[in-house]
Amino acid sequence: MLARRSLIAVATLAPFAGRAQEAYPSRPIRIVIAYPPGGSTDVLGRALAQRLSEMWNGAAVVVENKPGGAATIGTRAVAEAAPDGYTLALGNNQTHASNQAMMKALPYHAIDSFAPIARLASVHHALIVPASGARTLAELVAKGTNGGKVSYASTSVGSASHMIGESLARRFGMDATHVPYRGGGPAVTDTVAGVVDYFVSTWPQVVALVREGKLRALAIGAPQRLPDAPDVPTFDEVGASGVSVDAWFGLWAPAGTPAPIVAKLAEAVVAIVNEPPMQERLRAMGFNAAPLGPAAFAAFQREEVARWQALVELTGIRME
I need a surface site. Which of 142, 230, 239, 287 has the fewest CB within 10 A? Predict the structure, then answer.
């Protein structure tokens, strides 16, 4: 009788044991991006998804764009997803730092709702104008002062592009109207068309259009001029030191995701970013490879949330 009960118990537990020992990944992984296609976060996410799929012998890794709500809709979807490693967020300093500092009713917590996997890369911001627009920052300032007005685009209210764009207006006393968009793609399109006078964009998002002459870069937020854009002065050179901040990008899983899955993802992602071909690809797109594993990334994110809280106090920009 005891042997028979043991056999029944083993048969009952077998399906659950199999699930617990299931190899990861055994089904498609979804990387959610809280922005429309075409922006820096999207470009980076698709490059990562492609290489991760190759590394894992063709495992399906798909990108899903869920824009809106100042990048909170897609980010919240991941925070509320099952913590099984099959729904991930590829976000940035807005989704996982500045929104926490700016929004009183953020529908997730930038730190507590997620398990950090890895930081991937960083990028510089550039001051962009239409090809037919101002040729220098001084010309732009002249247009927006002494009774004149200018407008500037941002990827959304409270984004880095909003903060830097507004900081420029305040620094130089420009009468500037903020025009928020739902992501970088639409903001770039209207800047090319001359609908707005300037846009502080991440460099990867606009580098090709600058090279093609469809946009003009007036300044870049790097410590020195970039090798691929030697004619573009730094913010320091044009008298706007301290205005620009770098953007950064990372990968998160929902809080509670099993540590072995987080560790496997982190190992793969950091290895990918450290590959020479991927680093060259990132450089060509305007990114700086900046990999960090889970523990170091978690510490970095906490520092960034505190830094953005200080910036919010300085600019007074908040979202209700």
Answer: 230
Q: Are strands 247-254 and 215-220 parallel, antiparallel or unpaired?
A: unpaired
Contacts of 141 (CB under 8 A, 6+ apart): 172, 173, 174
CB 96 within 8 Å of CB 301: yes
Alpha-carbon span 30 to 41, nearest angstrom:
15
Q: How many beta carbons lie within 10 A of that of residue 175, not counting itself?
A: 14
Closest to 221 in 3D by CA, of 205, 245, 199: 245
Tokens at residue 283, please?
């450089």
**Three-state SS at 227:** coil
pTM: 0.76
Q: The sheet that has 125-130: what strands, in order across it?
A: 176-180, 150-154, 198-202, 125-130, 215-220
Which residue type, as a one-letter code, is found at position 79? A
Q: Tens of pLDDT along the chain (320 residues)? A: 434 434 433 443 434 344 445 789 999 999 999 998 988 899 999 999 999 999 999 999 999 999 988 899 999 999 999 999 999 999 999 999 989 988 888 999 999 999 999 999 998 999 999 999 999 999 999 999 999 999 999 988 878 898 889 989 999 999 999 999 988 889 999 999 999 999 999 898 899 999 999 999 999 998 899 888 999 999 999 999 877 778 899 999 999 999 999 999 999 999 999 999 999 999 888 899 999 999 999 999 999 998 888 778 777 777 76
Contacts of 62 (CB under 8 A, 6+ apart): 28, 29, 30, 31, 49
Closest CA to 239 of 262, 260, 218, 265: 218
Each as own residue / partner, the long-range contacts of residues 47-53 (CB below 8 Å, 24 or more positions apart, any chain) are 47/278, 47/281, 47/282, 47/285, 48/90, 48/120, 48/251, 48/269, 48/272, 51/272, 51/275, 51/278, 52/268, 52/269, 52/272
